[in-house]
Amino acid sequence: MTRPYLLASTDSEPVKRFYDVIVIGSGIAGLTAAVGAARKWKVALISKSVLRDTTTFLAQGGIAAALSDQDSPQLHFEDTIRAGAGLCKEEAVRILVNEGPARVRELMEICPKFDRAGGDLVLASEGAHTVPRIVHAGGDATGSEVASALTEAMQQGSRVQVLEHEFVIDLLTNGGHCIGAVSLNLKTGVFTLNYATVTVLATGGCGQVYTMTTNPVVATGDGMAMAFRAGATIGDMEFVQFHPTGLYSGNSPLFLITEALRGEGAYLLNHAGERFMVGVHPQAELGPRDVVVKEMVRQMQAENQEYLLLDATHLDCGMLKERFPTVHDTLLNRGYNLCHERIPVTPVCHYMMGGVVTDLWGRTTLPGLYASGEVANTGVHGANRLASNSLLEGLVFSDRIVRDLDRYISSREESARRLSILLPGPSRQGNQADGVASGRKKLQQIMTSDVGMVRSEDGLMNAVRELGLLLGSLRAPRADLEEYELFNLITVATHIAKAALLREESRGAHQRDDHPETDDINWKRHIDFRLKG
Ligand SMILES: Cc1cc2nc3c(=O)[nH]c(=O)nc-3n(C[C@H](O)[C@H](O)[C@H](O)COP(=O)(O)OP(=O)(O)OC[C@H]3O[C@@H](n4cnc5c(N)ncnc54)[C@H](O)[C@@H]3O)c2cc1C
After folding, report:
1. Ligand 1: distance of its center to the CA of 30 in Å?
2. Known active-site residue 400
3. What is the CA(151)–ligand 1 centre distance, in A?
4. Residue 2: what pLDDT?
5. Angle at 166 between CA 162 and CA 172, to 5 degrees
6. Does the pTM exceed 0.90?
7. pLDDT digit string (tens) for 313-338?
8. Active site residue: 289, 323, 440, 507, which one?
9. φ, ψ for residue 99, nearest 5 deg
10. Which domains does the chain have, with CATH numbers?
11. 184-229: pLDDT as tens digits
């Protein structure tokens, strides 16, 4: 076995478990895949934390789908393509918008809390959507409502074996196929070889590579890094979306203030009290996220300020409380009254457009390994994701994975039970805990200062060099969560920086001040990475 495993095995023999399908991750992508696969197959769902500790749980705004008479999949397609700045894969977008409405209706059957008025769905407006098309649940609690409903569906009949606090370290490969994953139980310290005919990566994003992010602490890019180590292709890593309205504060994760608030009419103001987006984009505050963020950065630099202001004081207070209970109450707890005062906001790292490259059925370039949700790069987001398309992507592509399982599983004759995997020997030294913590901080500082919203060749070269030095300063990990996560963060961060350095143009979420123009002739293409050999 020549491939690079991150695992440092223990002296004791690992436990072995056997499944048809393992799903790694308990967000919308993982839960949807597990519920669907368990109708026919023996399934395990593995999560490194508790089930609800996901980005999905935090989602506020809702899910985009063409569900009204005023809307159509074609309109949704056009909005998605326009926001994606020339890099969306059109076939994948067609699937997203055409299959999306049916998937959302199915979700509504198990999650009755989608907001309605007089029996009709309430549809919200968000950035770069030309018509209101965002369905939401519990006002601005869509993620928690949807995650709870899917979790309940998964637990009915107990057909899925749920493994919480189980950290997946690496994928297992044999003969060019993925045959499962090795995990460490964070409570007991026991290693397990989870053999499976199919492995579904649904490990979410990597916002923790930046100092300030809306992403939860579990978002350390593990799935992207382990897929890369196992030989799968990752791509579009330079496209990291910054959200315009994180609540300005010193603590990451930053609280997100949903775009739907601007959809209801809230303004963005500079410190002179001007609506600076008017005249910059025809949809003003509701322009695509990359356009709004770029102008926010310009305004903050011009005013020498670290934040701008979100103003909802002209809107009806009753509506704000009813439609945005989470935002309203959280702000109140933090000392801000949304009804009566302007809220300090700053652009913040929010979403990874790139990831593990898949085809239209969620298949990665490594047979036996599928990917769905934020970890995946299906091609639907291009250089800039259209708001509320990511929950939809998880629903649509996990469903397609489930539909492809029969084909893949019946094509595999070899039983994983007969395979033996050689893992690397134990590492006795590892890294000191404070060294790991300061390594993570250092990585976040490098990424924030040199690979942030506006990039340049000098900064990016410095980032690649510094990240290399950081990696070189570390010893092989022991069996420790923070160490494993740091190695994964370095892998992901290095590929973000390398891709950003290669792409000598500005497009969507990737902005270079030394190459401010979009260059379709040379750069209307994707940057992929794959491990040599
Ligand atoms: C604050 C906020 C609000 C948002 N609002 C919206 C919105 O309104 N609409 C929208 O469409 N999108 C929204 N997004 C984006 C969207 O929520 C995410 O892209 C989406 O939920 C990702 O789902 P997922 O299933 O891919 O991953 P996640 O929900 O992040 O789940 C990842 C899972 O993988 C597990 N995991 C990770 N690594 C490992 C490992 N090594 N071993 C075992 N388990 C592992 C985690 O524990 C977790 O269970 C929002 C994002 C944020 C941060």
Report:
1. 10
2. no
3. 14
4. 46
5. 100
6. yes
7. 999 999 999 999 999 999 999 999 99
8. 289
9. -90, -20
10. 15-61+139-239+351-415 (3.50.50.60), 245-347 (3.90.700.10), 433-529 (1.20.58.100)
11. 999 999 999 999 999 999 999 999 999 999 999 999 999 999 999 9
